Amino acid sequence: QLQENQDEIENMMNAIFKGVFVHRYRDAIAEIRAICIEEIGIWMKMYSDAFLNDSYLKYVGWTMHDKQGEVRLKCLTALQGLYYNKELNSKLELFTSRFKDRIVSMTLDKEYDVAVQAIKLLLIVLQSSEEVLTAEDCENVYHLVYSAHRPVAVAAGEFLYKKLFSRRDAEDDGILKRRGRQSPNANLVKTLVFFFLESELHEHAAYLVDSMWDCATDLLKDWECMNSLLLEEPLNGEEPLTDRQESALIEIMLCTIRQAAECHPPVGRGTGKRVGSK
């Protein structure tokens, strides 16, 4: 009897889905399309056994191409809720392989709110499984730390920090209390310099610093470490910084001091909905 009741309820749910959702997720009114996607995200979380499979997920994937930003935004927030739960990751593998490129491309969305949520979704995907995102996928997000729109840049800064700067080697744990050149931040400062030089946007160190200010304040304010990298002799077996790397480090250091003193983003970086061209 229990099985019959369950079958009956699932048949009703299926009828409602085919009779209502399948028609309304393409409704002419964007608000209705957005409600549909928001709700299917809730169903997938609440009853993943029935709804979290590719025959339902495909509707979210298709709707990521919707012409209205508010609808694309609902797709991303619905997916964030699913990827955040690591127990559901195995059910999302096929969807990820099929729609990952679309999510990566949405980091450049013309609607800044959508771009920010796309980066946040990729950060959740990164934290659940590092193998999913290729080096090229990550680089597409990295360069957004130089975006003129601050929320996009800050989201990209957090992604960059989690991917390149948040790992500590086991030996680092033993030297956490060391200062200056021997502190665990020394290698992270060098990584920051290498990233800045590789991105070849040397005049925009202030943008890079501002992007990572919220998530990497301790690193960016470790001026003692930066000073010792510039002034002290390299440790045994340590590669010395080249003149170009030292110049970059000085530039980054100046930007961190200015950011700490002035407490506002660099000139040309705003938080508005759109950044107008000159």
TrEMBL record:
Pfam families membership: HEAT_SCC3-SA (PF24571), SCD (PF21581)
GO biological process entries: sister chromatid cohesion
GO MF term (any one): chromatin binding
UniProt protein name: STAG2 protein
Family: Belongs to the SCC3 family.
Gene name for this UniProt entry: Stag2_0
PROSITE patterns, per database record: SCD (PS51425)
A cellular component annotation (GO) from this entry: chromatin
Domain SCD, first and last residues per copy: 21-106
InterPro entries registered for this protein in UniProt: ARM-type_fold, Cohesin_Scc3/SA, HEAT_SCC3-SA, SCD
Lineage: superkingdom: Eukaryota
Entry's transmembrane regions: none
